[in-house]
Amino acid sequence: MNYENFYSGMQPQEKAVKDNLASLQKLFKAIGRETDLGDIKSLSRDLNAMAEAASSLSAAIEDMKATVSDFDTKTYFENGEFAEQMLADCQEKGVNVRGEFPVYEMFPYRVKLDVENQDVYLDRKKVQCMRPQSLVEIVKNGQEKLNKASFNALTFVSELSDAYDLAVLKLKKRPGADLYLTSLYKFLAPMSRFRKEYDQQSFAFDLARLYASEVKETKSGRKFQFGPSRDQNKAIRILDKDGKEEFLATIRFYEDEVEG
User: Fold this and answer.
1) Whole-prediction pTM value?
2) What is the mean pLDDT of the chain?
3) N or C of the chain: less Cβ packing under 10 Å?
């Protein structure tokens, strides 16, 4: 199964519905004029034509219903054809994708395919979309919108340094120590309602924008440094400004003298 084949099959049927609706609208206006004028002969003729157009419209709608009914959405999801076409569209449109059926990451979005209910989730939001091409377009447009959104890297890194200082105290670490970014996220968004508004994917996107920026220190002049980890589960995946995959696991803030 391929949605684009289904889409192509629907086009002439949609046109038939559109043409019949246009004919009905035209005839409806005509019978209004004929009623006003008392032109019973033309009125009778156009009413018969209207009935024929209505019958054709009904038939065209039944054809569309049959085409939709023949499209087995459950099989389309279960056999992986939706996912296969989605990945092909990602490649065609240059959307970076990672993951395995049924969960994928299209940074900074997370796409989940609910096979049982034939639903698609973009992050936590259900998207009524069974056309892979349209889904990828939604993601791509969202990415472009996010990239164009204003972002103050200096403000963000300064807020991150505040969370770092709090984490150092709470976790009893030494100043300048490498701390996991996943740990800092919990200090940035300590309550569940905050994490709904600012989830970890949003955090990762901000990290990516900071990583791509020219900001090298906080407002107070403290420097920072990202670090890797052998534990990939602790790393946060981002894309750099060239679309290259990077994994950031830790960060540390330090004064110049600490670096020495």
Assistant:
1) 0.79
2) 92
3) C
